[in-house]
Specification:
Two copies of one chain form a homodimer. Chain A is about 35% helix and about 15% strand. Chain A contains twelve helices and 13 strands. In chain A, the strands form three sheets. A seven-stranded mixed sheet of chain A has the order 2-8-7-6-5-3-4, with helices on both faces. In chain A, strands 9-10-13-12 form a four-stranded antiparallel sheet. In chain A, strands 1-11 form a two-stranded parallel sheet. The model of chain A has no long low-confidence stretch (mean pLDDT about 95). By secondary structure, chain A is α/β, with parallel strands linked by helices.
Chain lengths: ~400, ~400
């Protein structure tokens, strides 16, 4: 990819293999936020809601995200956080299958997805069960008691990739609703929610989509079911006529009913600018380049750094856009690497995770990163008390 | 107040009486966001979570908001939207009173608060009732069936002010949980959540607090009850150890459990800068100046524009920081006023609403606004087809 010019230069002392956690700053995002703040907020004040299209922004940006995941126009809307969107989706699914009491997920799901379901179940207090199985056991665990299958396509630890089409078909065969979390998929690899026919999908935009820290989440609802969704989070901006200020809630016609409160206009300005980069990207090309970078990385690590054990699937078709290695002192080793400017991240208990983002990372970066990793591991630089104190990283 | 220098100049052709909807742009907010985007997001990338304190920001800013509403340190946290925070608060309250089935509110509450309760009730499907009475009937309607009383202190249409101390005491006398929405109170008048002893309070920050469009909401939970709250929205950033990535949820010790997903870091940067203005503000002084501006406005309008009928309480002690007048063609009249640069807003069915914000509005602004209103009403400028088409305004 030759899109590096779309981003501000990464710090010269940094090799950034963490775009799967937080993407870098697009040039257009900085300019757009600056303009929005001065000329829209500062210059138009309340009139910005109409004059600058703030009110329509969650749908407009939703369509831009939708194009990357195979969603038709008017089926994706932005807002809130991924946690909130998971709650909305699962609550809606349970209403669609009132006689079933199981939500099925897997142990590779990101914890907040599971926590939000737990919170929903405790709130409902009606005998629901969150059943968590190993990723490879999901297909066999879908039975007629399952109301909803809720999975993250790419395992945040290992990078293992679920087959969306096959698992959605399995869920539907058993009469269950399928919800996909695309946090590590959108902008990382080709996704086609329409083809797989899942009912709902959710995801975040600060990773591969480069929307900035705290960028809002998205939710997709299949067009044919959207009119029947009974929103648990029935906010005024999901109302059919929010500015009538009726005392009673009446949901908007389609996907708009998944809006809740006032949208985060500044964050959306950054994200909307970041999404423009994707207009020049072919997702198949990006996927090929991502795999090429990952293969170089794995080959060099396995040749030069035998202390690390690959925990991602070896078959590139089974991986997202990240590669993870296990190492018992992985936390300290990652701290040592970060101190040398190679930014990956650590996930408990022992996983060193590296993300590959061809928009702004190339093979030279990958080989330079391996050079550092070889030094850190060969010279046991991780064996340093300053690297052993656990700090919060996201 | 002599704090106008803290804000960018309002457009010279604008008299802004809508700071109760969206505050103007603080100089410090623009600078802070610009710096945050370039140097933190752009320069630190993922390291910003620790290096720039993004992770602690929702609590740090929460404490700043808390100082304006009488909340002790570590009892307020920022995030999400006001709609979401209402849901969290009411869901928590219902768990605290498991044998009661009524949520009491009033017809002067902002609709999204009522909608969110409706959505919660429909989701629970356990015989809960949202009882909506007239504002003056609230105290008499609190009985032993009421689990929670949930009110907005300042009526968004009329500006009518509830007595927080008295109504909280009435709720507690009946054994109900008290939740206050301070959307039109925080930064508008002195508030003391600790003195009134309410269990929870919520509010937004884009109005009087000038946090920018889509600025995050706040939630206060009384310190003694926070450890027993069972969060309905059990997000990972409310987990006791989010970076342990446990499969099971375990709430954080206190107010932190009301956090949900990843915080909106850019919006919080703007808000944090906006909150610095308040360090120089005495809320009693601000309240006095607000009332003085309102009194001038009412006196001039009633003398010079008899077509308008005051619908706000005449007693300034019973009003928030806004004044509303009824006029049957209020929508068109407000459009005509806005066309002349006087920015108030319209609330169905017939209310013309004007907000008073002494941080950046003075008596000369108020009198100039009345001059325009007199012309619009005296010359029937509202009687123009271009002003009759309803558009969305917020």
């Amino acid at each position: 990819m030759v899109l590096r010019k779309e981003f501000f230069d990464l710090p010269t002392d940094m090799i950034y293999l963490d775009g799967n956690s937080l993407g870098p700053l697009p040039v257009a995002a900085k300019a757009r936020v600056s303009d929005m703040i001065q000329n829209e907020w500062g210059g138009q004040l309340i009139k910005g809601w109409n004059a600058s299209g703030w009110m329509a922004q969650p749908s407009r940006v939703g369509d831009a995200v939708g194009r990357l995941i195979g969603a038709p126009t008017n089926t994706v809307v932005m807002g809130d956080t991924l946690s909130i969107k998971v709650y909305q989706a699962v609550a809606a699914a349970l209403k669609m299958r009132p006689n079933r009491r199981v939500i099925l997920s897997d142990s590779g799901n990101f914890p907040t997805d599971l926590y939000m379901v737990e919170g929903l179940i405790r709130t409902l207090d009606q005998g629901y069960e969150l059943r968590i199985v190993a990723p490879e056991d999901v297909a066999g665990a879908i039975d007629e008691r399952v109301a909803a299958v809720m999975l993250t396509q790419v395992d945040y630890r290992t990078g293992r990739l679920h087959d969306m089409d096959a698992l959605t078909a399995a869920a539907h065969n058993a009469g269950a609703v399928m919800i996909w979390d695309l946090a590590h998929s959108a902008g990382a690899l080709p996704v086609d929610v329409a083809r797989c026919e899942c009912e709902m999908a959710v995801g975040c935009t600060y990773k591969y989509l480069n929307g900035g820290p705290g960028a809002p989440a998205f939710i997709y609802v299949r067009a044919d079911i959207a009119p029947d969704i009974d929103p648990a989070l029935a906010g005024w901006l999901g109302h059919d006529a929010p500015f009538d200020f009726d005392l009673g809630y009446r949901p908007a016609a389609g996907i708009e009913r998944m809006r809740v409160g006032t949208p985060p206009v500044i964050q959306l300005a950054a994200l909307e600018a970041a999404m423009e980069i994707w207009e020049a990207v072919d997702m198949s090309d990006l996927r090929s380049e991502s795999i090429a970078l990952q293969e170089v990385f794995i080959r060099h690590i396995e040749t030069r750094v035998p202390q690390l054990t690959l925990v991602s699937p070896r078959d590139s078709g089974q991986r997202g856009s990240q590669v993870s290695f296990a190492f018992d002192q992985g936390y300290a080793a990652m701290q040592a690497l970060i101190a040398r400017g190679v930014i990956g991240d650590f996930r408990a208990p022992n996983i060193m995770r590296f993300g590959f983002t061809p928009l702004y990372i190339d093979e030279a970066d990958v080989i330079a990163a391996v050079d550092h990793i070889e030094v850190v591991m060969g010279d046991r630089l991780w064996d340093n008390p300053t690297y052993l104190t656990r700090q919060r990283v996201t």
